[in-house]
Amino acid sequence: MSSPAKPHSSGSLVRVVLGSATGTLIEWYDFYIFGALTSVLSVKFYPPENQTFALIAYLATFAAGFLVRPFGALFFGCVGDLVGRRIAFIFTLSIMGGATAAVGMLPTFQTAGWIAPIGLILIRLLQGLALGGEYGGAAVYLAEHVPDGRRGFYTSFLQTTAGLGMIASLSVILATEHSMNGPSFQRWGWRLPFLLSLIFVGISLVIRIRMKESPIFAHVKASGTQCARPLKEAFGNWANLRQVLVSLFGAAAGQAVVSYTGLFYALFYMQNILRINTHTTNVIALIGLAMATPTFILFGALSDRIGRKKVMLAGMLLCLVCIYPIYRAMQQAAGNNVVGVTSTKDPVTNETRLTPLTREGSSLVAARQASHPNMPLLILLICLQNLFSCMVYGPIAAYLVEAFPAKIRYTSVSLPYHLGNGIFGGLLPVIGVGLCAATGNLYAGLLFPMSVCMLSLVVGSLFLKESSGTLIWSEIESPAVSQLVLTAAPLPATTD
Fold first, then answer.
1. Does residue 335 contact residue 374 with C-beta atoms inside 8 Å?
2. Is residue 171 part of a domain?
3. How far, in Å, CA of 146 to CA of 27, rounded?
4. CA 120 to chain centre
5. Which of its termini does the chain have fewer beta carbons within 10 Å around, N or C?
6. Phi/psi at 424 (nearest 5 deg)?
7. Rounded Cα–Cα distance for residues 142 and 158 (Å)
8. How far apart are CA 437 and CA 354, in angstroms?
9. By C-alpha distance, which of 132, 161, 144 is closest to 67?
10. At 425, which CATH number?
11. What pLDDT digit, counting tens, does each position of 327-384 carry?
12. CB–CB of 200/26 below 8 Å?
């Protein structure tokens, strides 16, 4: 019997896509608010008299949520492979929503001292654990419903949630700022975007609770081929472990630095290095990302035609070649002639801060805030960075799902993705800003993403196998079992 080629019902596929993507969108929204409010919250939860320390400590807290994601991937991956995809990502959504709302109720450093950053770190760790289980579950669940040959197209809708989550977080922040004066937002208004998460999560939970298990997992469970020890089989077997390592260094690591350079590092760079005010940078990032986001679907569909590997490696190569010229153009577009950075201490307040420098005559002095940045050019440059991200990120869910068998798929997909994004992506902002501060060079922070891109290009070119021809529906071979699991979710129609 040949692999199923068409879904049982286009209407049911739409519901599956919406159910998977809605919850993941909310989780990305929750996760990204934390980064989008860096300039506001760093001095709320760390000593405000030392702004450089506060910024780097906050970025390290931001990174902590990424670093713990692989542990969430392992734990919820096992739950997903043993109990079911649906149950796992209902739990992850609940944890993420509760943790995000807790940030909105957390006391600041001024009122609670060091209890505030400790509480923030614990909350961030919970967020990371939840997201570590969410993405893999949603990607596998969706991919196990859609037909072979169009998996890149359908899973690319899930990939758009990363961009849409950032757009949603920036939109809510800008709307909240617009609804009140600046001092009010600084005092308490910043809490509202976090608290709103409870409403969004409640809606998503209702949708997810009504969803049914994926047909391929239902087949695995009904036929008795379920893996009793997914961790051992995924990582104790050399063939599977090798595939995990190739997926990590040849795809996920490169995807992470390309994505987070455009999503986060560019935002931090404009705010803290180029001295463009927070509101303006949020607007620039929002418009640039919104322009690029539809191309997730374009590149996902393209990967069905020409292959996942070609599209992903092309995005990494473009990022590697173009990233330095893009950041030079961003520096010029700021219009305040920033040429370097240094850490300085105010002799009166004893406050330490990261100070961008400009040249006046033969001297370097503190740069003025960029009062009239070239917004159209900056939007275009942000859009270009996110376009490279869409090329790499659009096909990666389909590639990862196709790289591993169903009985260990949740665990195996989640780990390389979250190791790549947790370590390489999560550390990018703090390493980038730290390199700029340590060297005084505006562009030193780009060394990290460029190096990782180069690594992934080499490993991916040599060892990454094309997966777009993989027929995951061939795992459903028994007509009797196929009929049994029809009650769990719509199966594709079989062809002879």
1. yes
2. yes
3. 23
4. 20
5. C
6. -75, -45
7. 8
8. 7
9. 132
10. 1.20.1250.20
11. 999 999 998 888 888 876 655 445 556 788 888 877 888 888 888 899 999 999 999 9
12. yes
Q: What is the identity of the amino acid at 493? A: A
CA atoms within 13 A on the CB side of 202: 6
Residue 136 and residue 144 in contact, taking contact as beta carbons nearer than 8 Å: no
Buried b (16+ CB within 10 A) or exposed e, 273-306: bbbbebebbbbbbbbbbbbbbebbbbbbbbbbee
What does the DSSP 8-state code read for residue 113?
T
Q: Which two tokens stand for residue 32?
A: 């990204």
The pTM score is 0.79
Identify whether 429 is part of a domain.
yes
Distances (CA, A) of 249 to 204, 243, 454: 33, 10, 10
Q: Do residues 2 and 495 lie in contact, with contact meaning Cβ atoms separated by under 8 Å?
A: yes
496 in any annotated domain: no
Q: Give me the DSSP letters along 25-85.
A: HHHHHHHHHHHHTHHHHHHHHS-TTBHHHHHHHHHHHHHHHHHTHHHHHHHHHHHHHHT-H
Token pair 């760390």 in the structure block, residue: 46
What pLDDT does residue 423 have?
A: 83
Number of domains in the chain: 1
Q: Is residue 451 part of a domain?
A: yes
How far apart, in whole angstroms, are the C-alpha atoms of residue 91 and residue 88?
A: 5
Q: What is the pLDDT of residues 270-327, one digit of tens each?
A: 988 898 988 899 899 989 999 999 999 999 999 999 999 999 999 999 999 999 999 9
| Residues 81, 282: Cα–Cα separation, whole Å | 39
Tokens of 49: 């008299």
Max CA distance (Å), the chain: 82
- The pLDDT tens digits of the residues spanning 58-86 come to 878 877 887 888 888 888 878 877 777 77
Report CA-CA distances (Å) from 449 to 259, 309, 319: 10, 19, 9
Phi and psi angles of residue 365, each rounded to the nearest 5 degrees, phi first? -130, 165
Q: What is the mean pLDDT of the chain?
A: 82
Q: Which residues pair with 6 in a beta bridge?
A: 493
| Residue 84 zone, left/alpha/beta (φ > 0; ψ -120 to 50; rest) | left
Residue 17, burial from CB neighbour count under 10 angstroms (0-12, 13-18, 19+): middle
Q: Where do we find the tokens 């390309």?
A: 258
Predicted local distance difference test score (pLDDT) of residue 26: 78
SS3 label, residue 360: strand
308 closest CA partner among 126, 464, 78: 464
- Residues spanned by the domain of 285: 10-487
**Whose CA is closest to 130, among 162, 102, 86, 95?**
95
Query: Is 172 in contact with 155 (CB distance < 8 Å)?
Result: no
DSSP letter string over 187-244?
A: HTGGGHHHHTHHHHHHHHHHHHHT----HHHHHHHHTT---S-HHHHHHHSHHHHHHH
Helix (H, G, I), strand (E, B) or coil at 364: strand
